[in-house]
Design goal:
CATH class of the largest domain: Mainly Beta
Strand order of the largest sheet: 5-4-3-30
Distance between the termini: 28 Å
CATH architecture of the largest domain: 7 Propeller
Shape: globular
Strand content: over 45%
CATH superfamily of the largest domain: YVTN repeat-like/Quinoprotein amine dehydrogenase
């Protein structure tokens, strides 16, 4: 893919920006003041096996958009299928799933290290001072790395397809979604992040895909349900499940229609409003609700979802035809569209710093 040239003043402006925020409620950041590039980062996956993923940067204050940020700063490609962008106080971690690469940059997006010893990495999360966890489908495990030199500190086995993670700060418990990978799973593995030992699994319905922690400290897990592509009559509906911090199920909301695959669970900064994507659009629900919503909060076709942990603005991406550039729509917490900006091919996950 041909790299689009970004004007030097735009990069200079990004490099000089300073902010104080955390990435999200999943424990990526520590809330301390950091120098470097800040704002919203969109992981554009890129076409499978045909090209490279890219990063779109959006500055909320100036509403300036910079395309292909990683390539512009480093004059190299990030890799095929940019699955996610993790963040620590001093680093970004760009996970190129299909290439088996984790590009580690400083907070100015300058490449400092490439981790190449995982074949199918998915997501990263800082789990303690100087320690980063990375999920990997090829080994069905969570791998821990020392941030001082990015060497391996060992791994903890999970079930099939370990994916997104959440760190509960109240008890240092790492919750790891087992999405099923290329098959099917219905569990979440709980790991003691301090000792890096497995505590056990909690049972969900088929194919859990995302999770958040609410204002009361409960953990919500969204499951897409299982699909039989040969006979849709065998499809099993997804569910939204609430657990307490010890892993005991507190409530289960099963979707009426077994055909859609609800995904991309997110939560507002105050921890009392849930968001997710499903057929028909973007859905919203209070954590105190006794029923699932009957209609979308915002109608539309969306692929990725993120919530700004500072403003509460909701970012929803449209991958369009999955071959050309997509776009991102930004909604205020009352559901009003406030801004739209262009992204790269298949805009998926969002990172806030």
């Amino acid at each position: 893919m041909k790299i689009r040239h970004v004007l030097l003043p735009a990069i200079a402006a990004l490099t000089l920006s300073v902010a104080c925020s955390s990435d999200d409620d999943n424990g990526h950041g520590n809330g301390s003041t950091q120098k470097g590039i800040t704002g919203v980062f969109v992981a554009n996956e890129g076409p499978f096996d045909q090209s490279f993923g890219t990063v779109t940067h959006f500055d909320q204050e100036s509403q300036t958009v910079t395309q292909e940020l990683f390539q512009s700063v480093n004059q190299t490609q990030v890799g095929n299928i940019l699955q996610s962008i993790g963040v620590t106080p001093n680093h970004f971690l760009l996970v190129a799933n299909n290439s088996g690469l984790i590009r580690v940059t400083n907070d100015d997006f300058e490449l400092v290290k490439t981790i190449e010893d995982l074949q199918s990495p998915r997501y990263t999360l800082q789990t303690g001072p100087g320690v980063v966890a990375i999920t990997d489908w090829s080994t069905d495990a969570v791998h821990f790395y020392d941030q001082s030199d990015w060497t391996s500190m060992g791994s903890v086995a999970c079930n099939s397809g370990p994916d997104r993670m959440l760190l509960d700060p109240s008890n240092s418990m790492l919750w790891v979604i087992n999405s099923g990978g290329f098959g099917t799973d219905s569990t979440v593995t709980r790991i003691n992040a301090a000792s890096r030992t497995a505590i056990g699994d909690v049972k969900t319905t088929g194919r859990p895909n995302s999770l958040v922690r609410d204002a009361n400290g409960d953990i919500w897990v969204l499951c897409g349900g299982t699909k039989d592509w040969n006979d849709p009559a065998n499809n099993q509906a997804g569910a939204l499940i609430r657990f307490n911090r010890e892993g005991d199920e507190q409530a289960r909301f099963t979707f009426a229609n077994p055909n859609p695959s609800p995904t991309r669970l997110a939560i507002c900064p105050s921890g009392n409003t849930l968001y997710w994507l499903s057929d028909g659009g973007l859905f919203s629900m209070s954590t105190t609700s006794s029923d699932l919503p009957s209609s979308p909060w915002v109608d539309g076709s969306f692929y990725g979802l993120g919530v700004d942990p500072s403003s509460g603005d909701v970012y929803a991406s449209n991958a369009k035809d999955f071959a050309s550039n997509g776009e991102v729509k930004v909604y205020s917490d009352n559901g009003q569209l406030s801004h739209t900006f262009a992204a790269g091919i298949i805009p998926g996950n969002f990172t806030f710093k």
